[in-house]
User: Fold these one by one.
Assistant:
Number 1:
Amino acid sequence: MTPLTYVRAVDRTDALVRVEKGARFLGGGTNLIDLLRQNVEQANGLVDVSLLEDTIRETDDGGLMIGASVRNAAVAAHPIVRSRYPVLARALLAGASGQIRNMATVGGNILQRTRCMYFYDVEATRCNKRQQGAGCDAIGGFNRYHAIFGASDQCVATHPSDMCVALAMLDAVIHILGPEGERSVPLTDFHALPDAAPHEETVLKAGELIIAVELPPPLEVMTHAEYRKVRDRSSYAFALVSVAAGLALADGRVTQARIALGGVAAKPWRATRAEAALIGSAPTPEGFRAAIRQELGDARPLSDNSFKIDLVERTVVAVLTALSGAHA
């Protein structure tokens, strides 16, 4: 048994002081505790921050500030989220089970680690996320669930969060507190692609803590949006592919477009090429297909997941067609 200390922080300052070397911040624990139990991760102490930053409030400019310790279920049920940012509520309800949503926190959801089977198998497989330089058995192994964008010869794992895909589409900003003070990072820049250091998954520095997620004032493209998740079974399964997308139309043309993809990269993948291709175009299935194919030109499938290219295309076209009211 590994000795482990536990303390509950009473405020931000207390949390930063208590998280000494080797200790970890603890929110709902729905991912971290499993990782510790299975010896995927190690810690000599836990600093419970689940009672800090647990409110949701409107900002002065009409946006929304969501505390990092707010439970996923509370975010999904919040009336402002449901009315102004419905894509976020739908993404949260598509993730995990009701029991886990009642425990999981916003900050923990953002920081959850990949569900790659090789990452979890500490006894028999190599994984550069667990041990830098060990190798990646997923590349030549079973990789049906792995990345088609942004991977490297070091790692092909995907980020599992549904919530983060919606946050990427909504231009959310992560607020961080650490020994050097507060700073803010766009969600799209928060997670790192693997490159040469796949164990460095985010831009968080030692001792830093996520304190809030800020949503900007809602635009039409955010309120007229949808989240769709494609998975092997309808309940409690991670995405093969997911799509968070929004459209704004005027005079028969697309004026705003937002597309974020899940299940395809080590971070929520913002499809900026497809978005740019849509602006000014007619909202037709053919136009949607042409736009997403521009994004998919950069896809690099593995031996078992080339089907994801077609699945992304068909899912994006279906979502955008439904949003536009066009007929296939």
Number 2:
Amino acid sequence: MSPEFITMLKEAANMFAFLAVELTILFLAISYLVGILQEYITPAKIQSILSSRNGKGYFVAALLGSITPFCSCSTIPFLKGLLRARAGFGPMMVFLFASPLLNPVIIGLFVVTFGVDVAVFYFAIAMSVSVISGYALEKLGFEKYVRKEAYETTESSSGCGTSCGEKAEKVEKTSCCDEKPAPVTSCCDAKPEPVSCCATADVEVNANGQATMTVKEESRWVRVWRSTWKDFKQVLPYLLLGISVGSFIYGFIPTDLIAKYAGNATWYAIPVAAIIGIPLYIRAEAVIPLSAALVKKGMAMGSVMALIIGSAGASLTEVILLKSLFKNQMIAAFLTVILGMAIAAGFLYTYLFG
């Protein structure tokens, strides 16, 4: 191997190691803190305060979206819950726009990767466009493009009813496991003793073949950590993919090539980056480290901003899922907002800081 190739390989490996360690620590720390916060802000509370009767509902929806670390697709099940709870249409749309764009992991990655100034600009654009778009869509009457079946409440086959804390016979209790032994198919499998849904059971078998079960209540802190670690394992492949591609670009792709086609002098780079981002469905955890390498190689920050917003804010998979909730007119409006936000952010950043 030539000395030049070895040098490029070392640069790529160093970049990979640095980003892998830094972003892993950041993801785990922020996700854990958000998990603790979500212990106190339940979905039921969120649904109860998202009202469009006053202006506060729109800003509350944006703020709640900013503390829920969802990707664009995982926002859809939560949106279904809001629809069935008859939350305000405008605030629901604000939540749909803001949730995948403003979660703390993305903001933290922005701060670490591009600096506080870029992170604040991104947050301000995503927050303001989400609120304005949600308000405008409601005032323009786009609620009529929500499918009627989206408001229907589905029956649960679980013995605990439609939620973990509600049995079919409407027994009042503080948790789904405060009742007598339930059927095995329910969320609280029948045990000799009541077992919390958040408990762990250790089973020991003695020499006579008799089993003894010891139930241990799991603390809130441990439960949140388990959830954080589970989320991290799900995101890890995407994170490593983004870091790997970014490290390869950083080490092997010539700077002049990227600067030529995606630099400040190329006016079409911003809309192209925004359009490309949507069908690619690159998670923000992957596209941000990838973008860091592109910036170091000469890609304009405006184009990077458009790519991140386009990829994190919408995807083809999300559009398919939204078809079960929205009619085509609403889906077109949703894509228009995300695409417009991405392009506007790119050009505005170039105008202000370029």
